[in-house]
Amino acid sequence: MDQRLLQRMQELRDLSGIIGLASWDQETYLPRKAEGARASQLATLQGLYHERLVEPALGDWLAGAKGLAADEQAMVRVLAHERDRAVKVPARLVKELAEAQSLGISAWKQARDQNDFAPFKPHLERLLALRREQADAIGHGGERYDALLDNYEPGMKVARLTPVLEQLRKKLTPIVEAITARPPPKDVFAGQKFDPDAQWRFTLELLEAMGFDLEAGRQDKSVHPFTGGTHPRDVRLTTRFMPETPLPAIFGAIHEGGHGLYEQGFAEEHYRTPIAAAPSMGLHESQSRLWENVVGRSRGFWSAFFPRLQKHFPVQLGGVTADELQRAVNRVEKSLTRVEADEVTYNLHVVLRYELELALLSGSLPVSELPGAWNQKMQQLIGVTPPTAVLGVLQDIHWAYGEFGYFPTYALGNLYAASLFNAAKKDLPGLEQAIAGGQLLPLRDWLRARVHREGYRFYAEDLVKKVTGRGLTDEDFIAYLRAKYSELYGISL
After folding, report:
1. pLDDT tens, position by position, 38-76
2. Which CATH number characterizes residue 314's domain?
3. Residue 205 annotated in active site
């Protein structure tokens, strides 16, 4: 490969890492009065990245890249795809988007503090206008959402995605109704207090057991859990802590730990190249959802880790059994918030956001009507109405970033996760017994070999087909839910 091309790839990865670090800091330690300065800094960095990406010389180097090895071909393909999108977007728009994102995050936090959508409304309108302009600049064949979706799930189109989500909703609705008609399991956490410092220590134990390298990463606190960082050897996780229950911290840590393992698992020879990355956010989400739900909510997992949790909370959980705990963490209910939704209703929260995003981007839903539309769809899809804006339209940070097209990747991640875990069980016959014994590294190592090290050498669905023998399907996921919850609730699904 031309050394100029390789050097530019490395420069772009370094710039991306610094942007990631500045964004992570923005969500964790940035002083409130520094928000304006950070907005300008990120706008400058994003502008520099864009300039380096669209420079004509890079186009020439990419076009002239011939006779390459397979990995080098993948590097060129991935970078060329990114560049092809970027050259169509004016540098002015890139900087405006970066600044609008930073200001949008600040306004979203203010709106949440005030429990009022109004402070965020003009910022969301601005972000939508800029994203429409971006989609039109990239080109989309009539469906703006396709251009934005491609940023997170390359190759996916609304025409394909909508039937997938509609079919998933149809299959999930009767399952949800059947389960929620049964008496809920005992809430073993109700009316108690759980020291956040003890929660913190337990989450670190879980990350260590999962094989997350805390010498190549760290965990911090944020309003909304996320994973960021600068490099596979500098991966930043966050989770959040609630004194009344340890579940958000525990499952936030496991979820982000799944993302973190992916980031730490790229092949070292791919570092500082375009293929040290997941091929899609859906596949990235498959890792977090696999660990959080398929593993983290399993009977075997809690057989191993509940005694450890009891050591941190002997008074609160001393009289609770592992079976009661496992039932409690798999409680299915028509809840208000996506990040704390159970795995049965979770995808309905995604469908809600997807449908609203389509309407917002097309202009058929004015931003001023969004809170009411949100509440109406929540009632239609899940059967509850948010009592406040914080529990409703303001609960996610994604729109503050202008990340339209991101939410569907969560549903795709759930589907991929079930298929990947089935494949892991076939390759590792004693896997579930190992998990019940507290041994999580066999799964980590299997994922690292079959998924993580591949990076972006293949498109997401092609990689899933390579590992599982099948592509995108809801069959494994629905079968997993029916088997698990039929046993938990004593019903036939």
Report:
1. 989 998 998 899 999 999 999 999 999 999 999 999 999
2. 1.10.1370.30
3. no
